[in-house]
Design goal:
There is one protein chain. It is built from three helices and four strands, in the order ββββααα. It is elongated, with a radius of gyration of 19 Å. The N and C termini lie far apart (60 Å).
């Protein structure tokens, strides 16, 4: 797998990879990442094609999904450690 380019964005790191007959677009924000794999076809073969594909509606959907991923992790952590903060220290009067 090799990096063929990056797409500039104000809040996301967007990296485009190529491996065999597939292109992958990776979106990173903080602790979270999403990867979309695309078979190289006549319509999508080059970095310019990927830049057309990754348009504002696509990026908006990615950002929405990254926010959803953040909520899922936070909810899971809350279930795992619901009362750690309360039980960890003795009560001081």
């Amino acid at each position: 797998m090799r990096i063929i380019g990056e797409i500039p964005h104000s809040t996301l790191k967007i990296t485009v990879f190529q491996m065999n007959n597939k292109l992958s677009v990776q979106f990173e924000s903080g602790l979270y990442a999403q990867i979309y794999k695309i078979r190289a076809q006549e319509e999508v073969r080059t970095m310019a094609d990927i830049q057309k594909l990754v348009d504002p509606p696509f990026i908006a959907a990615v950002l929405e999904e990254l926010n959803r991923m953040h909520r899922i992790q936070n909810d899971a952590m809350a279930r795992l450690l619901p009362s750690v903060a309360e039980d960890e220290f003795e009560e001081i009067i």
